[in-house]
């Protein structure tokens, strides 16, 4: 038990009491009470200065502008976020904004080349966000967050007050707000907007792991896109930090559920998949539609290609170019049937796929939305400007 | 010199248009940052510590005065008035904005240049001997092959997403000035017993955190088989190279893990398959390229003004002794312009200096310039009679430093001052060493000595092959410099050995000074170079000079 804690009783009991007491309160009332209620204790607002952060910051500035505000600078943030942070803190007159950063020695030891996020996003979040925040929160009994129920499955039953591992109370004044409430509050109070929102980032984290969101996508879809990751690890589910090894990258073969949604790209446009579910592992006797992984040994198929109508080669990541050489080798072995590249292939690679012998590319509906046909069409003239054709005498 | 065909011209324009669209698609979100990154990298655009950095290729290090002037224009218009020549025959602009980059690429295309594949996990700018086509010891000019490889590797559809970057270096001379054995593929032009041209092929070299000297894969590959053979190596690497760990993804690791015999068997198998893919158009193209690299018509005039200036002007003589190399024609010389004035940033040139060099090349050097991997600029064909005038012009532009091959002709990476990967500063160390030995006035007495400095273990400053290598690391937030001794980047490539514990930023320059002064005491004659003395005596006396406390302790104990 920490000293000077102005409260008695275990966290769980206090949380239950607080939720009952403030059940029908509005956000600002909850916040006002959270800042002054002895049951809550010493409290800080943790703010990312992201897309919607200005709402709570504004409320704090109205209630008590000396309330500690912890801003985690992961040192991977957008320049716009840093500028916005300064602007908002100044315009709202917040007097105790504390910038939290990872210890330099920890960065030097674990991420000296700033590339950890490429290999282990969770470890990067832990290093740059979770651990610095843990340290910064040590003197506090409670912290205020802007999390809302509508933000996702893991947050759908969020309460105003949460018990965080029997250590601290987490206060979520905006738990019941809807997206419109946030917008309305910002409009009514003439609050400055994060500049990236207008450029298509409804949810903003670190620069390397935040991408723009297409119209109709979940607002948080741009966070850690392409990874099975929704939370940075600061937040907890059932009292436990949400963290763990990333799941293996899905290959073409184990994406059958999504299959009907996939889009086939050819020189003439997008089309539905006419062969969904027909593919079998390459060693299936008599199979006419084969699935190959990027590690496949195509020489094992020598003499078995007669009667094969289509071969699908998986691209687990667009940066993994093995499939291009596999396609070329199959063509050199004399395979004349259909050849399909499937998985994460981007429009900019379409000409490469066609030039190495693929007839078509299979992409997810999500990718097709983000990179519509016009972007593929720009590379559908793959016979033009081809050095290989000149050098090999095929041009 | 090679001049672009209509095809080349259309290609680079198309590439600029594509990149312009990619920048827009990044800004509108069609491309994620993750997807945009390799696309910008394969167009030479890095995100550095302070800003974007654009790396422009100078294929096989050759450029015309017109191209050099365009680089000067770009430096002034879109950068801060200077450029940085690198160890891989590129020039880097350190301050462009993303929005301007397509326009810069357009300006490069105007003079037949590009930034294609100067970065990313693809075949990089092919480098060659910077004295190619001029030196006395050459079997044949390597640049036509480098140009053929440039065309073949540009946008090669199979090899844009390799496990890791891929570097090819070519030399046409037995004295290797292109450090080919530190490349993924090193090609040495030679003739077989029948006099036919071909290549000795090395694979699996590289510096970086795991330095390895390339091993011989084939003793002789006929020139007509160059493309299918290189393509066979790449196809094997694309499938075999590790993709689970970027630090183990280079070809050198695959060669190390599988053994050269396995790699050779796989390459031979792939070669048999690939050879049938090339119908001979590549040979026609090669012959056409070769014709464009014919040596210019050299003047036949009297060399007397050169000898007169040598006798009259000791400053000219000192410069001629260090900065000239033997040309195949005895009346001509190869001029190396040092971009290492004492106390300046190695490899930097201002726009004005670029124009001076362009003017000199146009007036005295058959319009040709070279960039060396040692970050200097070369005018390859200068008649000896013109050398005094060239020297005067260089002096006026602050480009006449007479230190080529000497202690202050240091290769240094950008280090922590510019690079986001660096763990220590390297440029200030290079500057301090140069300034110190200039003050001691010992530089010419010390003679040939290659000091190379890297600011992190990725070894962009080639410290592994420096006679004295310096590696800057970060030890718990404090810069620490390790010294390696005995490295050599020539045809006898040797990786230097670490001498012992590192030195702080304050101690490193005095340590280098102790080392070099001890060499002056130890050498058996002024003709014995540092490297020769090191090979004769071994590391012990040099380590004693570096660590006098330990040497004293050992003497006291004895």
The backbone outline of chain A, from C-alpha atoms, is elongated
The CATH architecture designation of the largest domain in chain A is 3-Layer(aba) Sandwich
Counted by DSSP, the helix tally of chain B is 19
**Considering the protein shown, what is the CATH homologous superfamily of the largest domain in chain A?**
HUPs
User: Which runs of chain A of at least 5 residues are low in confidence (pLDDT < 50)?
Assistant: 1-8, 233-260
Helix content of chain A: 25-40%
Task: Tell me the total number of β-strands of chain B.
Answer: 21
Q: What profile does the largest beta sheet of chain A have?
A: 7 strands, mixed
CATH superfamily of the largest domain in chain B: Sulfite Reductase Hemoprotein, domain 1
Radius of gyration of chain A: 26 Å
Instruction: Provide mean pLDDT of chain A, rounded.
Output: 83
What is the annotated CATH architecture of the largest domain in chain B? 2-Layer Sandwich
Q: β content of chain A, as a range? A: 5-15%
The CATH class of the largest domain in chain A turns out to be Alpha Beta
